[in-house]
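Table S2 (continued). Query chain:
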Amino acid sequence: MIPSGALKELSRIVGPDHFFLNYEDLLACASDGTKMKFMPDAVVYPADTEEISQILALANMEKFPAIPRGAGTGMSGGALPVNGGLVISMTRLDRILSIDQDNLIARVEPGVITARLQEEVERVGLFYPPDPASFETSTIGGNVAECAGGLRAVKYGVTRDYVLGLTAVLPTGEIINTGVETAKGVAGYDLTRLLVGSEGTLAIITGIILRLITKPAAKKSMVAFFPELSLAVQTVSSIIKQKVVPTTLEFLDRLSIDCVREEMGIEIPVDANAMLLIEVDGDEVLVDGDAEKVKDACLGTGAIRFDVASDKEEVEQLWAARREVSPSLLKLRPGKINEDVVVPRSRLADLVSFLGDLSMRHDLPIPAFGHAGDGNIHVNIMLDKENRDEVERAELAVRELFERVLEMGGTITGEHGVGITKAPYMDMEFTRATLDLMCRLKRAFDPNNILNPGKILTITDD
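Corresponding output:
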């Protein structure tokens, strides 16, 4: 609980119009993309770094939990107030401060919607590549906190590859600046990289300096259908061996295809058991050549149909359907456990084969789709969460999945983060010594464990 005196002080800091205790406003900040619900004790909407500094200094003094929140699209529970406390919504910090065309950087506040930033920089011929599936609603601050990936990661990398510097507030209320505004800079420890992906457990990010690149001159989107999963996976390697690095290289299995069949807007072969969505970009001549290589690779490994999107409308429909795969899977079961595992590309075929066996052993549908170009596959274990037997089988399946992925040299999460959903499995991927070091880092930043407690690590008072 937050002491009554602290509640009055919070109202004073942000103003009564931006401080909420009523049930409806608390409920709006009680859930996220996981659909789990934890009620906070209060919600504030600060306007700037200084207000956040005052809020965290108060939380640290009174020792109540403070939980930063972006758009609430996270898939691992990273913004949930699992111990109650204060939710700090970042939605008012939503300015694009500058787009520097000479130095190819943008300065933004964390509440900027990802799609809005992309649109603004593209208006001046620049490009911000990271594009999580939630890009139309997720915020840059949330993307940084989770180190979001997205469809274009195979060629362009993930959020951390574009963050040059940060302004952040420590749990004790101190304001720090990390990183640089230049192409190079190696002075001191790389605190920027440490904060990117820290899921709001070490500091609250209030300002971000992002690296931009030149907008590609041309792009082509293609779709290929395969009679067998193994052929689609084999094609991924074939494309890379052609010395083509696609902008995106997405994989859908038969269950995923069936769930978005209507949204695809194209005829899908009845014997298609896998699909690849592929895009290449760059110089116009280079794009044409790469598209031909992709076509040869797909047909050479047994694609039963290969199409190039004919116009902008068809391109947008294809990628919109891909982004709808995850929610559409609820046609199969009323609930799901969505795991975003990653394996080396060379082990994709092994992972796909394992998923078929896993589904049969536990008698649960397990559709898979995702970023085949970088080995990041979204494994969805579909279940009825009211059915205790299905829940137990699904939990066993998750642990078996993680064990196999780690045996393959992979990781239990590629872009969703740890949050609360994967925290119980951290000791599967990391040694005790590594986890202890992470705990010591957390204590150094947050001695009273008030900032987003209960996420990633189990921190004790000893």
